Amino acid sequence: MSTATESTVRERVAAVGYDFYVQQKDTIFWCPLCGDGGGISRSSEDRYGFGATTMQCRSCGFLYLSNRLTREGYADLYAHWYRPLVNAFSGFETTIEQLQEHQVLYAQAMANACSSLAAKPYRRTALDIGGSTGVFADELRKRWGYRVAVLDPAPDELAKATDREFEVIPGLVEDFDTDRQFDLISMIQTVDHLLDPVAALNKVHKWLSPHGVFLIDFVDYTVIANAFGIEQAIKIDHPLYFTAKTAELLLALTGFEPLVAGRTPDGRHMVYVCHKVPPLSYAEVSK
What we know:
This protein is an alpha/beta fold. It folds into two domains: 3-90, no CATH class; 99-218 and 243-285, Rossmann fold, CATH 3.40.50.150. The chain is built from eleven helices and 13 strands. The strands form three sheets. It has a seven-stranded mixed sheet, with helices on both faces. Strands 2-3-4-11 form a four-stranded antiparallel sheet, with no helix packed on it. Strands 1-5 form a two-stranded antiparallel ribbon. The termini are far apart.
């Protein structure tokens, strides 16, 4: 990125008025994936110019923010600042309608990825974690008649899911719990936003019915970092950064075995459709 372009982006971001430095933060001393306490600093700034420190675990290689926002801070970010910051970075004002148009194409691709498994007649209830405006939920309903609950922390986006007459659950997956089980659980463009990925996917394991499938995608950190540099791959709303190795480690630790694995056409997202199996320990996985 040229200096002039970088300056323009920083000016647009500053105009949003979000002050990262006064926000309450959690300091992360242990790897969120394997629990190891050793880390190497990889970056001290994110793509917006905020002072976000990225650490890489010495044991499993996982990358994560070590000075991330608190849970309340992320709830406020998603409710008021996330979309304006994205718009400021890109230089384009994205409306909810435009967001939905983009989501439709991605939702169709995700539905195609899990179609052979989602179409089974004994699978008809779903939970879409981070479901935004309900576009993927709508794909499940239109294609196979699923009854879908949409969980998301952004009220403006969740309002659109309400308009589509889905059951909606406001909030973060970390704050939600239920005794219900679902035949299909999706976590699309969401896992990188989690605070405790192991705890969150342990919940998914509990919520997934014995014959259910779990659809999840991960941003491949290495693809973006190799193309644009480490700092351009980091942003404060992503506490977590996955590679193929660490994505598959998370699935194994939380009891998910991929039945289908692939990538989006641009190569940026790794996509897995899994069933649940007994979780493995880190010692078992790392043998």
